[in-house]
């Protein structure tokens, strides 16, 4: 019976071969982190006192609401990438958020509580200049949008246009700003640089021009950066040449009142351009008459404009950042000033008097590995005793948001740099000290010299240590189990990070476009370390390489990041420890020449660091690390190593390169889009495939094979094509070439084992198509022991098949496992946010059109033109991942398990089991059943034994 | 070659821009509860639209061409629709068919897209029920013969010599080659042996009298 049940269990395992997530696995080993990007506009929702929302619009074209208590997203809307989804302005009025999108193309209004759209209208074309809310008689009902040539006024309630008026002389005058103060007039401020200011006053009711005048201002070159309206229509501009404030009353006759800064006792730092900051808390009322003037990198002055006179309310020095905040009728200013090297303090001051408010100090601790604070967003609120309380959201250079409550408690931080991960690696965690000590017992040579006795002692002691560790673990488990679940802290710190028995937990080293590096624990998603690299060019390309893994204790693991300026080609190296994030003490070589290419060789120096080769624009090669040992090794292998960029290294004291092959791809017809080699850590378990007739079809496993993707330069839909060229990287021989006519990119490609899968857009049928190429040597191997590109007389057999895919895709990668026994799946990121795990079985050029006995024997699926998308195959169920840019796969210690990280706007980490969990007991393994069956059998034997005894006795009596 | 009257290159220049309108309905769910997570995608992420608080949507600024319009929601499944826009701005909607791209099955325009239910992301765990176990063909195959072996000797009176003769005759007919061990015989041997008969290793004829004596 037990056998039967086991058999039945086995059958179960075998039959459900389709991969999917079970509902009880949700959140067990997967996590998602949602990001929004670097914040451009932030507004606190202030319609009710207890509101806990901050609305942000970001550089990633995302509009979102963040819960201020937890830092989690309440809702998020992701617009399209690029300038067409760019958010130009965000205005908040009550529960409506008005947004200008796409250089003034669209005007949108959102309902901030639900996160739904109120309305969206298309604006007339014209480049966007300015948007502002316009109020009338204490009510804000309109929004004004200023474009290069026209100004339009829209109702806030439905977006309908109230009026649109052309701007006079718009070809010469650069209109930059709109001002209104609830008086029924709309002032449009324009400028002819270094000549004069033009002011046009429109009537709010019908758009009629009420007044129009110009004022000479030859010193003014930009309105928005140096001017601001202060008080009742006083346009205040700062002139950086004469260092004076120029005040123009917009309501009365045009003449400029000039007040030099010296006369009010202010001195501007040398070479500093003064900046004016004012505040208009309510669009239906004039702005405050108090304003900030920044007169030095760390000096701000709070000034007050009173009847044409300027009064200094308070001089803040040093002060890095200042901000206005309003709650109800009260307006306060928050000033951030440095306290010591690692902390700064934020204080509140009354805006009207400049007096410091008591008990409003807040300490902001700066991360030594982070950037400097960039912006303050203050949420002020009235406490019960009518005093002002506040919380503050600090934005730093490294795109971090920190939300702080008094007296300096950090409520949450968000690392928005992670919305733009460029490249990543997964590094094995180190062994714990005890584990490492045990390992040390074997490797050392000294052990043998010590003699037998001490070795036995050592063995026993290490066994004892293990026992002790096990006991403490058990005790901890027992101890934790008694505590309520909420109290059990599972904090991940550097100290308790260690490799688990199946190597499922790894360190994710992520490099972001802003130049901030992160080390994230793959199990929980906790950020273990972060490091902000300053002075990273904005257009940098990053290449992350693991030079030394954790396997070489006591040498620390080592990662090298190559940061290259895309324009100049100049590069720098950053060497760090991937587990702790610390910069290595090894000084990387300075690279004075632009770098063309880098390559990590399998060679190691005496410290087990892999050698990194860099080729500069003179085709000179430099090695890192470049010790004598390395150079010697390099000379030995130099004749045989080659860069795939068609160069060979020649061994000499200074390494040089030599051209060995060249393939010319006519640039006027097609351009190379991508070059894909195979992954170096990939293993192929099976050399061939067993056919239905029991013969073997051997795979063509060329480790030097490169797949080149080309796209036609002609973009016309009838003539465009996508080409794929398979080239041997050593000899330059073209193994195979395929052209997909009437197709265009973007092309996503996966190159692994003996197959290449690529995806393109078919312009003819307007659909996405997949194509798979598989290479086979044939029925026998030419040289089964070693593969050499130079000695392969027969070209491989090429099989190809294409399919329709019913969705556009955004990223593609194949699963990867330790030994390559597990079947492969393709992981496909879809724009819908799902990550589809498509069995490679569906992309097999041997799928037959007519099913035969042999194909059934081989388990081939009959050909169907359309590939299925089933939501059961989504590895991330409803945890959508927006804008997937890349998918990183890494093997774990278990053959069945592959670790997957999808990154884009969000980060999602999970594990996949392409062939089910065949090497561990499944989660739903029924311990109850198996034990109950065993128990039942045990009792059955006991009872039957007893019965048999009774029967025997009876028979003996007879 | 191209499907539909409106198909063609999306206008590259600043041609007229149009708007795709429609409404999405999730039966039984208020729009407020799902619109914040939903989006309208036109041809992948080429054009993006958002849901209004009442479940309607409009994607603005789209040049003429043919597009697949999808409503994306992590909780509900919506069927995609192909929308053709002529260069004059005439619209029509049809079912998406990637294989026969020119086939036209009209859909209402402005779009009316009903959710066809929640997404099914999860596999069902195999749960253990005794009925599943008993109804398994393997178990059935084992249990039925067992029943026959145990019950048949009780139903048929083996003490009757005529009956026995008849049975033996039929046995011989079924088993033309007496050299081969009979399966059923083997089975009976096995099971009657396990029934606790003391005579181990007795031939089938040896055990039968034991049964008879009972």
From TrEMBL, chain A:
| One GO BP annotation of this record | protein folding in endoplasmic reticulum
Query: Which region is the signal sequence?
Result: 1-20
Domain (ER membrane protein complex subunit 1 C-terminal): residue spans on this chain:
752-957
In its keyword annotation, does this UniProt entry include Ubl conjugation? Answer: no
Q: Where in the cell is it found?
A: Endoplasmic reticulum membrane
Q: InterPro entries this protein is in?
A: Beta-prop_EMC1_1st, EMC1, EMC1_C, Quinoprotein_ADH-like_sf, WD40/YVTN_repeat-like_dom_sf
Give the domain of life. Answer: Eukaryota
Q: Which residues form the EMC1 first beta-propeller domain?
A: 20-416
Record protein name field: ER membrane protein complex subunit 1
Automatic annotation (TrEMBL), chain B:
Q: Which residues form the ER membrane protein complex subunit 7 beta-sandwich domain?
A: 30-141
Q: Where would you find this protein in the cell? A: Membrane
Single Gene Ontology MF annotation: carbohydrate binding
Q: How does it sit in the membrane?
A: Single-pass membrane protein
Q: Which organism is it from?
A: Mugilogobius chulae (yellowstripe goby)
Top-down, what is the taxonomic lineage of the species of origin?
Answer: Eukaryota, Metazoa, Chordata, Craniata, Vertebrata
**Which stretches are transmembrane?**
133-152
Task: List UniProt keywords, sorted A-Z.
Answer: Membrane, Signal, Transmembrane, Transmembrane helix
The name this protein goes by in its record: Endoplasmic reticulum membrane protein complex subunit 7
Subunit arrangement?
A: Component of the ER membrane protein complex (EMC).
**Signal peptide positions (record):** none
